Amino acid sequence: MSYLGIDLGTSGLRALLLSEDGAVIGVAEQSYTSQHARPGWSEQDPAQWTDALDAAASDLRSRFPAFADLKGIGVAGHMHGATLIDPAGTVIRPCILWNDTRSHAEAKYLDQCDHVRAMSCNIVFPGFTAPKLLWVKRHEPENFARVAKVLLPAAFLGFYLTGDFVADMSDSAGTSWLDVRARDWSPELLAAGDMRADQMPRLVEGSHAAGTLRPEIAKRWGVGEDVTVAGGAGDNAAAACGIGALNDGDAFLSLGTSGVLLAARDTCRPAPASALHTFCHAVPDRWYQMGVMLSATDSLNWLASITGSSAPALTQALGDDLCPPGGTMFLPYLSGERTPHNDADIRGSFTGLAVGTDVADLTRAVLEGVAFGLRDSLEAFEATGTELTRLIAIGGGAQSTYWLKLIATVLNVTLERPRDGEFGAAMGAARLAVMARTGAASEDVLVKPEISEAIAPVQDVKDQFDAAYETFKAAYPKIKSAQSANRGTT
User: Per-residue pLDDT tens for 24-69?
Assistant: First the structure.
């Protein structure tokens, strides 16, 4: 028997085939692009996702005979995206993605409505789903009138696989329509956003069965017709399942397109004023909190693109020995920021540029800016009484030893790098598929990885980075004021 875990990412889809004993059989990847028609807009055509999934499945089938014995599928996806479906089951318009900030005015309106923070357990961020639908209502009323269902990206793939409208708790918690404590759609929150309960998908826990693979897809993929499709998860909840962050205090750092500090919770303990997210976990009776910065490896990828290099080449050129903070500072707000600022308008900047500034200086500044942004999230956790002292590091950026030494020093925490293997959202999704198919307990399936290396703070330069972080924090209001003045706003 085999199980398929799907990670529907912002820039590509990753499909992981898992054996019944939890070993990775093989991986397939497909890439796609986003469209940015205007500043702050970010959209994708959902057909890209289904095409990528079919191509990945075909690739796995051609290379691994175990694919034919597929028994379960789990889907994880980037959160908050608004995929609008009409009564015929047709996509109405491109999906508005998580990093789209056009609905900042609608988010502010909803955030000020009575009981919205209390019931949703979160600030209403511009990237969340509910303000996107208000934006569509105000700017595309003809499209809003056609909406029969609103699906998050992972739920849309679930609809493609099963023909049913189903969503899991962890993904739905990022809509501002879910009562996160009760783990159910809230009539009050839906009404605040001018939505109806019948426009929402059916809710299931991520580790429970959502449906069965459609016969026509089973035939095309060359698998049996009894394949269970799990409820699945939002990408960060799935990543938590992939590295075994299940119980209270289990925590990790994800250095992906966005940067995330996540800690699992046994109870729902929201702290919306801190700009920490409080969401349902992908398994029953568990929640998690996380601090999110919008541009982590995205910042490094941006620098690579404008210098004609690649992200790995930029970090490898620095070596592994951590240097003291440089004279150039970078604010990593390329797409606005969530924790702790909740600011859709702020944008990134370099300061301290000189004639002698070179690419290595810029690279260090970008890595330091991201590390300081992550410390903002750490301090938000500490303000709620949560102390994080050890974090498992995952994501593409975690391949850089220099960056991990830097982050460990700035955060004053020990970072644990897993031994080579798969520990991200695709692995978590595959594990959810195992649980949905077999009924296995979460404690037996969501196990922690073997750690290959513990990276401690570099004490020789810690004080220097502490001072540099204070300068970083002080820069935000100054840059905000200058950018507002340039836009003619206050």
Answer: 999 999 999 999 999 889 999 999 999 999 999 999 999 999 999 9
The DSSP H or E segment spanning 251 is strand 251-255
Overall number of domains in the chain: 2
User: 233, 228, 209: which is closest to 282 by C-alpha?
Assistant: 233
Q: Are residues 225 and 312 in the same domain?
A: no
Distances (CA, A) of 285 to 231, 398, 422: 15, 30, 26
Query: What global pTM score does this model have?
Result: 0.91
Instruction: Assess whether pLDDT exceeds 60 at residue 489.
Output: no
The residues annotated as belonging to the active site are 235
Contact between 245 and 431 under an 8 Å Cβ cutoff? The reply is no
Tell me which residue range forms the domain holding 194.
2-243
**Cβ atoms 84, 136 nearer than 8 A:** yes
Reading the block at residue 345, the tokens are: 């308008």
Provide the b/e sequence for 91-130 (b: ≥16 CB within 10 Å). Answer: ebbbbbbbbbbbbbebbebbbeeeebbebbbbbbbbbbbb
